[in-house]
Amino acid sequence: MKRVALLTLLVLGITTAFAQKGKVAAASQFLTTNDLDKAKEAIDAALENEKSISWPKTYIVAAKVYTEQYKKSKDIEDMKKAVGFYEKAIELDQKGDAKGKGIGKFEKEIKLALTMFKPDLTNAGIDGFNSNNFDAALFAFESVLNVNAFPMMEEGIDTAIVYNCALAAYNAENWEKSEEYFNKSIDLKYGGGDAVLLLNQVYQTTGDSLKMGANLKKGFESYPEDNRILTTLIQYYLDSKQNVEALEYLNKAIEGDQNNATFYYARGVLYEKSDTEKAIADYSKSLEIDPNYFNALYNIGVIYYNKGVEQQNVANDKTTTKEYEAALKVANDYWKEALPYMEKAMEVNPNEAAVLETLKGLYYRFEMMDKYNEVKDKLESLGQ
């Protein structure tokens, strides 16, 4: 009787085990007939039973079921479960059975399933972008990279996916991962100048100015023809008052593009601190290229106006009328030089109060009262 009872229990155990593994097979079959609800019901039952919970096949099928569930629900949590199931299948397959046998038995099946799974992950990433769910997009694209990194896959780095991770992290305002993936993209020479400039935006947002300079310099070395990077690098040096470096790169910029008014203007700003004649020459060059360049017009006008003020101070220090009048004539000559630049600046930007105030003083000085009154009325209308 004992032996019969023992055999009976053994048969029942085998039957139960096969019954649960049968649910895995049933779930797989339901998938082939597109009966997702029944497939999910069967695999969920198998996932809860101790007889099938340690079987790699259970998780392979579960991953497939939840991938299909994601396509229906568009809920990234379903895709997260699918990823977790594949990871569990690999883990169990590397352990083998209770006696350590059968290690790697399901490796080929897992590899094939993962190969089919990667396009679904990529599409989930695209779904995330299209729905502005950038955290979901980041998870999906990162998962593609993780799948590629599995030893059984033997896949190289997918540069496009790395860049997509960077874009997803950037849009999700995940600055740490955004920095990580943009740096990887730049190292992989993917994304061009856009990757460099977007990483610069990350550093601007996080206030990491030291990394800004290093990134832009590296970007310029990688993409010397991308004027956007060069211009941004120059602006960085100007903003951080690294004038020597700014001048170095401005000279490079002008060598590469001799018809860029902005480059000459920026170099003029640098020269203005030490050599106003060189500044005037660069401002004038920018105006040859763009006669309506407001900042260049205004800056030349200010240089000449200030020279006039300085010369008037010289005149005030003279002790004879003759010396005073000679020095004042020089001052007036400077102010006459300033006048046409300020008038042109007003033509370009009629409501700029600083220009109007300067012109008001010049018109009064030269007794041009009609124009003086026009400018005065204009300032009053602007509330100045």
Quick structural gist:
The protein has about 375 residues and is mainly α. The protein has 18 helices and no strands.
Any key phrases for this structure?
384 residues; mainly alpha; Serine Threonine Protein Phosphatase 5, Tetratricopeptide repeat; 80% helix; elongated; disordered N terminus
Task: Please explain how this structure is put together.
This protein is mainly alpha-helical and 384 residues long. It has four domains: 15-128, Serine Threonine Protein Phosphatase 5, Tetratricopeptide repeat, CATH 1.25.40; 157-223, Serine Threonine Protein Phosphatase 5, Tetratricopeptide repeat, CATH 1.25.40.10; 224-286, Serine Threonine Protein Phosphatase 5, Tetratricopeptide repeat (Alpha Horseshoe), CATH 1.25.40.10; 292-384, Serine Threonine Protein Phosphatase 5, Tetratricopeptide repeat (Alpha Horseshoe), CATH 1.25.40. Helix content is 80%, strand content 0%. It has helices at residues 2-32, 36-48, 56-73, 76-95, 107-130, 134-149, 159-171, 175-187, 192-206, 209-222, 227-239, 243-256, 261-272, 276-289, 294-316, 321-348, 353-365, 369-381. α1 runs parallel beside α3, α8 (175-187) runs antiparallel to α9 (192-206) and α13 packs antiparallel against α14. It is elongated and about 115 Å long. It starts with a helix and ends with a helix. The model is unreliable at 1-18 (pLDDT under 50).
